[in-house]
Design goal:
Layout: E1 8-10, E2 13-15, E3 25-33, H1 37-43, E4 54-62, H2 66-77, E5 80-86, E6 91-97, H3 98-114, E7 119-120, E8 124-125
Parallel strand pairs: 3-7, 3-8
Antiparallel strand pairs: 1-2, 3-4, 4-6, 5-6
Length: 126
């Protein structure tokens, strides 16, 4: 087998065509507990919080439209504030008390895994 089996070679250069087919997955579920005030400001989140008891959740998922459903689940689960939802990139960011943010993330992941058959990553924390 030579390199021409993998792609077309033009003038000594290998040319590969790659296709990405996103699955149903959550690729990032991270909680930042007690973040510094500057993170709130840079993200455009509500800075009028008790930072020692607050947290920021960041989720990334595909298909990207699922971020809207994740935001809805978060609001219905806990007393959190949505900071950002992007149905084009699949990003959802929300904030609130640490326990509320943790509860909302758990609810989102449980729903997506059990009801919609998503592949779920583990929750990470800093």
């Amino acid at each position: 087998m030579d390199l021409s089996d993998f792609g077309r070679i033009d003038s000594g250069k290998l040319r590969l065509v790659q296709e990405v087919v996103p699955g149903k997955q959550v690729t990032l579920a991270h909680i930042i507990a007690s973040p510094d005030e500057i993170i709130y400001k840079k993200l455009g989140l509500n800075p009028d919080l008790d930072y020692r008891q607050s947290a920021i959740a960041i989720l990334s998922m595909t298909p990207s439209e699922i971020s809207v459903i994740a935001g809805d689940i978060a609001i219905k689960t806990s007393a959190i504030e949505i900071g950002f939802i992007d149905r084009f990139s699949g990003t959802c960011i929300f904030t609130g008390k640490i326990s509320n943010v943790q509860s909302a993330v758990n609810s989102i992941l449980t729903y997506l895994k059990n009801k919609l058959g998503f592949t779920i990553c583990e929750i990470t924390r800093t």
